[in-house]
Phosphoribosyltransferase family protein (Mucilaginibacter calamicampi), 171 residues
Amino acid sequence: MEPSGKKLLILNKQQIQQKIDRIAYQILEDNFDEHEILIAGMLPRGGHLAARLKKVLDEIAPFKTRLLTIEIDRFSSSLNAKIDFELEECTNKAVILVDDVLNSGKSLAYGFGVFLDAPLKKLRTVVLVDRNHKSFPVNTDYAGIALSTIIKEHIDVVLDEEGQEDAVYLR
């Protein structure tokens, strides 16, 4: 963007909630016949987004939802993840993998890696912002917004951060 470091507002608080609501209804439609779905948030901001999706789904869906968290080392050249669940708990379940921004696809690829040894019923992905700069063959099933940005630009997602209103910025 500009050298001055100015930020351009892409989504405000209301628009973010509208995107989350729409994604929740898409998840409901895709999983209507399920008894329970697992929503796995990639920490930190994917975890916040996953919790918000769970809240909406708990209001609208007939199935149970369970929140899981995945913490990965995003700078590692191999999968190094901490999870707050037993992999066996995912057997024959629908899992929704959630992150805030899809940039290169590496984080989501690592998220997939966590579930490689689990016989899942299905695995779907959610991102709030898809930047269209994939280096890995990763596609999203549900995206709030797709942005074609230049590689030097950066997306800042602010969710549940003290003293700041929810927003998505391009800088």
Remarks:
- DSSP finds three helices and nine strands in the chain.
- The chain has one domain: 12-152.
